[in-house]
Design brief:
Elements lengths: L13 E3 L7 E9 L7 E9 L5 E8 L6 E8 L5 E5 L9 E6 L6 E7 L6 E7 L7 E5 L6 E9 L9 E8 L6 E7 L7 E2 L10 E9 L2 E9 L5 E7 L2 E5 L7 E7 L5 E7 L5 E7 L8 E3 L9 E9 L10 E9 L5 E4 L3 E4 H8 L8 E11 L2 E9 L5 E10 L16 H10 L21 H10 L6
Antiparallel strand pairs: 1-24, 2-29, 3-4, 4-5, 5-6, 7-8, 8-9, 9-10, 11-12, 12-13, 13-14, 15-16, 16-17, 17-18, 19-20, 20-21, 21-22, 23-24, 25-26, 27-28, 28-29
Length: about 450
Amino acid sequence: MVRNPGIVAGIILALVVGSSTRALAGGGRFVPLGSSAGETRRAENVTRDAAGNPLVGGSETVPKGGLREAAMYLIAPSNAVSKQTLTVAAGTRPRRTALYVPRGANIAVGRATDNTGSQSQALLWEDTAGDATPLTPLDKLGNSDSEGGKYYEDEKEGPGAHIIAVGVSYASDFSVFLPTIWTSDNGFVPQQLDLLPGGPMNGAARAIVRNDGMTIIAGTAVGPAGSSEAVIWNGMQVQAVLPRGSLLAANAAAISRDTRFVAGLGISAAFNSVPALWSDEDGDGLYELHTPALPAGLLRGAFNAVRDLPNARGDGPAAIAVGCSLGPTFEALIFDPDSGVRLLEDVLANDFGLDLQGFTLEDATDLSVGGGVLRVCGNGVSAAGQPDGWYAEVALDAAPCPGDLDGDSQVGLTDLAIMLSNFGIPSGATPEQGDLDGDGDVDLSDLATMLSLFGTSCA
């Protein structure tokens, strides 16, 4: 079985689609990352490179000593997978994992540990020379250990101009956990986010977005009564403690780019983890809690990533979130308000006709939506019994936002950069590569369309 050891890290895959006309269509592909005997590849995050090709951030466990190497996996149109290892200084911290490689793909955030596994260091890599050399380790708070989490890079200010990483710093005996933020503006000096008044020194920052110039962070903090609370920070300050209804505790693991949706897990009265989704579709800052039921026989689950889905179809929140069930078996799942929770394997194979090559899908760790395509990555077991990461994509029935090539529901500099990197493709171009007029190439007509849409938003 493939398991994610994070506190709230990946774990039920769910699709929640809301009102209007948007839906999944058909077609797509399923690509294993290509583990081999003694070398296990894991998928943690999915994005796209400048040319619009899928890029999966994750790790590979190598035979010698079972060390985990941070890696990026580029998936070509032919489904060929190429690996790029993220390095650290020789002899320093040979055990590391790339947790996230967000959009832009020139920066990765992760962590490294020493040979004993007792010391941990948050790391940030920048691939300016094409060899994934390390940019800088992210400093720790005091004498605590730390791990990097998700990050945000403001492409409007130029690559690398405004980088923010979030994560957690913790004492070596795990008695204290501190939500931590590092920013390029102050040289990545660590800063502690506010904790809940009256609560102990415990919390973790798990996801970050930028919205209207504000830094919005989702994570977890422990309240005065000792229960974990799902929290949203605006900058350093707590903006909201999300409602948990009858749940005994709640953890936030992800937030959508428009900040209307937060996903994670809750602890029920029966002490089972349940998937939790919070929605603020009116934008008034008041979030509503949703706890969709798992299929019969599955007792536990949680969300790991969430995206807004503009112009969605159905009666539920216009969002999409991913993860897996936690017991008694590990299953990647998909949920929509019309069909309920289903096995992701069945949806990909039966609804979309994808050849899963005998894979058992045990979890889904991340997703992205852009260019009329839903992209999901995760981990499972091959037909030969080899643990392996995987990537899948399926088509949506219509692009939610013409000109939006990177899936952030707006047309901006990143979309223009993707188009320019593909400019001149004579045939076979896709919408996500910049073919906006559907004639198979990327030319001046597409550029004119992009410029006419520049600055628009579909959120």
